[in-house]
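Let's practice the habit of predicting before peeking. Look at the sequence and jot down your guess about where helices and strands might fall. Then scroll down.
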Amino acid sequence: MLEVKNLVFHPLENGLEKSIIEDVSFTVEDGEMLVITGPNGGGKSTLAKLMMGIETPDEGSIFMDGEDISHYRIDERANAGIGFAFQQPPRFKGMTVRRLLSLAAGCELPENKCCDYLSGVGLCAREYLDREVDNTLSGGEMKRLEIATVLAKPHKICIFDEPEAGIDLWSFSMLVKQFEQLHADKKESLILISHQERIIQMADRIMVVKDGKIEALDTKEKVLPGLMNEDIGCVCMNASHKA
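Done guessing? Here is the structure:
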């Protein structure tokens, strides 16, 4: 179980303190799918980075299975069982897709396993294995590779920051099936940051974050009707049509 207690994040911007996250607390149970949504700029991605250790909170604590991991580095949190997929994935010139997947898995993956992970995110596997993870890949291709690296290793909890961004509808459908299977297996907890109704519909619980605070946190049945009826700019009907 992941437990977030009273997180506060007030970074300095141009010498002035800016309020991004304000006293946020929630839990994610084993095997649960929590979807975080809300208006753009509300603090969702920052909250994900605080959980992964990319950013450091000014106050508050994070616990994994009862252990305080608040001061763990990124690699220590990864070893503790947290997986993370960036909204804007990093590129690695000189590194092949095959090598990246093996590094993510923590062992040398056979070609057939690499192909399985790539096919699962909508990429024609054999065309990508020996390509470099550099600027020759489009944003959509990078996003799918990023998700494949997270899927390549078992985790206790996986955090996906807007996994639908920059991918076409066919790949989006395949991605949804991956999440549905992960959720059905109940081996990993999932935190998905998303504006997409199809992803939000899969949630056990929905958390709405606005202006750095939790505006709503409850079951899908209780929260979703309010999202659809209120114009808060957080639910979209379709995935993007980007490559």
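How did you do? DSSP finds nine helices and 14 strands in the chain.
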